[in-house]
Amino acid sequence: MIEGPSISRKATRAGEKKRAVSLKITNADPRDPRLVAMVSELDKLMETMYPAESNHLTDPELLVDGANSFFVAEKGEELLGMGALVKFDGYGEVKRIFVKSKVRGSGIATSILSRLEEEAISLGLCKMKLETGNKQPDAIALFKREGFVICDAFGDYPKEDPYSVFMEKKL
Question: pTM score > 0.90 for this model?
Answer without folding.
Answer: no
